[in-house]
Amino acid sequence: MKTISKALAASLLLATAFGVRAADAQTASGQAPTAFGFATGADVRAQTQAMLAEMKPDQGFMWRPVVRDGETVAAVEIWKKPGRPAVHPTEAEYAIVLEGAGTLVAGGTMAEAKTSRPGLVEGSRIDDGTTRTLGPGDVVLIPAGVPHWFGITGERLVLLGVKLPAAK
Question: Per-residue pLDDT tens for 124-168?
Protein backbone atom coordinates (compact mmCIF):
# COMPACT_ATOMS: atom_id res chain seq x y z
CA MET A 1 0.00 0.00 0.00
CA LYS A 2 2.88 2.41 0.72
CA THR A 3 4.09 1.84 -2.86
CA ILE A 4 0.74 3.00 -4.26
CA SER A 5 0.77 6.11 -2.06
CA LYS A 6 4.33 7.04 -3.10
CA ALA A 7 3.53 6.33 -6.74
CA LEU A 8 0.37 8.42 -6.58
CA ALA A 9 2.20 11.28 -4.90
CA ALA A 10 4.84 11.29 -7.65
CA SER A 11 2.16 11.35 -10.35
CA LEU A 12 0.26 14.13 -8.65
CA LEU A 13 3.42 16.20 -8.42
CA LEU A 14 3.81 15.70 -12.16
CA ALA A 15 0.21 16.81 -12.75
CA THR A 16 0.73 19.88 -10.57
CA ALA A 17 3.84 20.80 -12.54
CA PHE A 18 1.73 20.89 -15.70
CA GLY A 19 -0.62 23.50 -14.22
CA VAL A 20 -3.95 21.73 -13.90
CA ARG A 21 -6.63 24.45 -13.77
CA ALA A 22 -9.19 24.38 -10.97
CA ALA A 23 -12.13 24.66 -13.37
CA ASP A 24 -11.03 21.55 -15.30
CA ALA A 25 -9.82 19.36 -12.44
CA GLN A 26 -11.92 16.30 -11.65
CA THR A 27 -11.31 14.00 -8.72
CA ALA A 28 -12.35 10.47 -7.97
CA SER A 29 -13.14 11.46 -4.35
CA GLY A 30 -15.84 13.91 -5.48
CA GLN A 31 -14.41 16.79 -3.45
CA ALA A 32 -14.51 20.36 -4.73
CA PRO A 33 -11.98 21.12 -7.48
CA THR A 34 -8.66 22.64 -6.46
CA ALA A 35 -5.83 24.25 -8.41
CA PHE A 36 -4.55 20.75 -9.23
CA GLY A 37 -5.87 17.26 -9.90
CA PHE A 38 -5.95 15.00 -6.86
CA ALA A 39 -7.06 11.51 -5.92
CA THR A 40 -6.23 9.80 -2.66
CA GLY A 41 -4.48 6.45 -2.47
CA ALA A 42 -7.83 5.06 -1.28
CA ASP A 43 -9.50 6.50 -4.44
CA VAL A 44 -6.96 4.75 -6.66
CA ARG A 45 -7.29 1.43 -4.80
CA ALA A 46 -11.11 1.62 -4.92
CA GLN A 47 -11.08 2.41 -8.62
CA THR A 48 -8.67 -0.45 -9.30
CA GLN A 49 -10.90 -2.89 -7.37
CA ALA A 50 -14.04 -1.65 -9.18
CA MET A 51 -12.32 -2.06 -12.55
CA LEU A 52 -11.16 -5.59 -11.68
CA ALA A 53 -14.73 -6.49 -10.68
CA GLU A 54 -16.07 -5.11 -14.00
CA MET A 55 -13.56 -6.84 -16.28
CA LYS A 56 -14.91 -9.79 -18.22
CA PRO A 57 -12.97 -13.08 -17.90
CA ASP A 58 -11.51 -12.80 -21.43
CA GLN A 59 -10.89 -9.02 -21.29
CA GLY A 60 -7.18 -8.24 -21.49
CA PHE A 61 -7.11 -4.47 -20.85
CA MET A 62 -9.10 -1.73 -19.12
CA TRP A 63 -8.30 1.98 -18.80
CA ARG A 64 -10.09 4.60 -16.70
CA PRO A 65 -9.14 8.18 -15.73
CA VAL A 66 -8.56 8.94 -12.06
CA VAL A 67 -7.76 12.67 -12.46
CA ARG A 68 -8.13 14.86 -15.52
CA ASP A 69 -7.39 18.33 -16.84
CA GLY A 70 -8.98 18.61 -20.24
CA GLU A 71 -6.84 16.44 -22.52
CA THR A 72 -4.30 15.54 -19.81
CA VAL A 73 -5.35 12.41 -17.93
CA ALA A 74 -3.82 10.24 -15.21
CA ALA A 75 -5.47 6.85 -15.58
CA VAL A 76 -5.42 3.43 -14.00
CA GLU A 77 -4.51 0.81 -16.61
CA ILE A 78 -5.11 -2.86 -15.90
CA TRP A 79 -3.37 -5.34 -18.19
CA LYS A 80 -4.33 -9.02 -17.91
CA LYS A 81 -3.04 -9.91 -21.38
CA PRO A 82 -0.27 -8.30 -23.38
CA GLY A 83 -1.35 -5.74 -25.94
CA ARG A 84 0.18 -5.02 -29.31
CA PRO A 85 3.43 -3.10 -29.63
CA ALA A 86 2.59 0.61 -29.84
CA VAL A 87 3.99 4.03 -30.67
CA HIS A 88 2.44 7.36 -29.70
CA PRO A 89 3.99 9.77 -32.25
CA THR A 90 3.02 12.98 -30.45
CA GLU A 91 2.87 11.92 -26.79
CA ALA A 92 5.33 10.64 -24.22
CA GLU A 93 4.04 7.97 -21.85
CA TYR A 94 4.78 8.15 -18.13
CA ALA A 95 3.71 5.25 -15.91
CA ILE A 96 4.16 3.94 -12.39
CA VAL A 97 3.60 0.26 -11.63
CA LEU A 98 1.02 0.06 -8.85
CA GLU A 99 0.77 -3.71 -8.55
CA GLY A 100 1.53 -6.96 -10.31
CA ALA A 101 4.48 -7.72 -12.54
CA GLY A 102 5.37 -7.58 -16.18
CA THR A 103 7.89 -6.81 -18.84
CA LEU A 104 8.48 -3.67 -20.86
CA VAL A 105 10.15 -3.83 -24.26
CA ALA A 106 10.96 -0.32 -25.57
CA GLY A 107 13.08 1.19 -28.31
CA GLY A 108 14.19 -0.65 -31.39
CA THR A 109 12.05 -0.87 -34.49
CA MET A 110 8.40 -1.82 -34.72
CA ALA A 111 7.54 -4.35 -37.44
CA GLU A 112 4.44 -3.99 -39.62
CA ALA A 113 3.52 -0.57 -38.19
CA LYS A 114 0.00 0.65 -39.01
CA THR A 115 -1.93 3.66 -37.72
CA SER A 116 -4.85 2.33 -35.64
CA ARG A 117 -6.27 5.76 -34.80
CA PRO A 118 -4.89 9.29 -34.50
CA GLY A 119 -2.01 9.27 -32.01
CA LEU A 120 -1.60 5.47 -32.03
CA VAL A 121 0.50 3.29 -34.30
CA GLU A 122 0.52 -0.47 -33.62
CA GLY A 123 2.66 -3.28 -34.97
CA SER A 124 3.28 -7.01 -34.76
CA ARG A 125 6.55 -6.97 -32.76
CA ILE A 126 9.52 -4.87 -31.69
CA ASP A 127 12.94 -5.76 -33.07
CA ASP A 128 16.10 -4.85 -31.12
CA GLY A 129 14.26 -3.21 -28.21
CA THR A 130 15.48 -3.11 -24.60
CA THR A 131 13.69 -5.43 -22.16
CA ARG A 132 13.04 -4.45 -18.52
CA THR A 133 11.29 -6.40 -15.78
CA LEU A 134 8.51 -4.38 -14.09
CA GLY A 135 7.27 -4.51 -10.49
CA PRO A 136 5.48 -2.29 -7.96
CA GLY A 137 7.00 1.18 -7.62
CA ASP A 138 8.87 1.08 -10.94
CA VAL A 139 8.64 4.28 -12.99
CA VAL A 140 8.67 4.34 -16.80
CA LEU A 141 9.02 7.32 -19.14
CA ILE A 142 8.75 6.48 -22.82
CA PRO A 143 9.44 9.45 -25.14
CA ALA A 144 7.04 10.22 -27.98
CA GLY A 145 7.77 8.14 -31.06
CA VAL A 146 9.44 5.25 -29.19
CA PRO A 147 7.99 1.75 -29.77
CA HIS A 148 6.93 -0.04 -26.59
CA TRP A 149 5.11 -3.17 -25.42
CA PHE A 150 3.93 -4.37 -22.01
CA GLY A 151 4.01 -8.09 -21.22
CA ILE A 152 2.26 -9.55 -18.19
CA THR A 153 3.86 -11.83 -15.60
CA GLY A 154 1.30 -13.52 -13.40
CA GLU A 155 -2.31 -12.43 -13.06
CA ARG A 156 -2.07 -8.74 -14.00
CA LEU A 157 -0.04 -5.56 -14.31
CA VAL A 158 -1.64 -2.36 -12.93
CA LEU A 159 -0.22 1.00 -13.98
CA LEU A 160 -0.98 4.62 -13.23
CA GLY A 161 -0.32 6.15 -16.63
CA VAL A 162 -0.17 9.65 -18.10
CA LYS A 163 0.27 10.69 -21.74
CA LEU A 164 2.21 13.95 -22.07
CA PRO A 165 2.67 16.18 -25.13
CA ALA A 166 6.00 15.56 -26.89
CA ALA A 167 8.87 17.85 -25.93
CA LYS A 168 9.45 20.59 -28.49
Answer: 999 999 999 999 999 999 999 999 999 999 999 999 999 888 776
